[in-house]
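Input record (one chain):
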Amino acid sequence: MQSLDFVIPLKAPGLITRAVLEGIDRLYRPRSILIITDLSLWKPIDYDIKTPLRCIDESCFFGEALSKQRLQERFDRNVGPDLSWRRPFGWWYQQILKLGCHQVVKDISQPFYVVWDSDLIPLKRWDLVVDGKACTAILQREAVIQKHFNFSEVTQEYSKATLTLTGMPPLRPSVCGKEALPKSFPGESYGTFVSHHMVFNAQYVQELLNLIIDVHQSKHGQKPLEWPLIFVDLAKDHFRVSEYELYQTYCFTRRKPANRYYPYEMHGAEGRARFNGGVRKDGINILSELEKTFQLDSIKYDDIVQFVRSQIGRLFDEMPSYLQIDGV
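The corresponding structure, as predicted from the sequence alone:
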């Protein structure tokens, strides 16, 4: 793990940012952690980490011609003002940052680097490279439902976006972790490739982006667009896209022998704890529970671990592999 870089796109430092960074440091000791964020909002504190921490400005990450502002202006022209049923531009921009960081960060670790979502606090370590192969854990059983969509609609939106961009039928995990199944395959679902982290191979990501450009050019008969523009334009007709599903679909279609994953039962089902805005499905507010013990200005990783252990048998059946507290 010490040869890997971790990349974290971050809207702004939040209540759990410290816990996420310290958790990665404790469990993985990577070569470095790269934060891609708005530097005007970044207020570093004295994190208890040994891993070198670097911050990169998101505003002109891909250069002036593809600046965040210009991409957002194009997004706004495509989508219009009504976002009640669609993810906002910032969500789409994070997908673009994750897929393009190998192009911008010239000294990023090779052949693998890890993209990690900023709301994912690891509590148990799983190896990210096994026998020379990237190995991501499947952490989520099914798509998260928004109030404007049902489960089928959300799943279809991810699938349609993958097919539009790559021309490849979208795939989902199997129970064994060694293959991927068509999403249309009948039978029980074994999780989703929307896994909140991904071990990327820089070469394969670039092959995926080249494929997206080629597919777009063949469909529209025009000179190739810069790939970030293709993603921004996609938002006009699609409500969702998953950078992780795109990548796994590509790898298991074109690069199958070089990729693997931990099946859902190993790290998802045995201890999944997701809190939307801090609130669990049964109504328990994890932030309120934490507030009873800790100050909520910047939660330390060790405090999170101590709290979770103290709540086994009450809030948790066993020690989970991770906590995901989104929307905070």
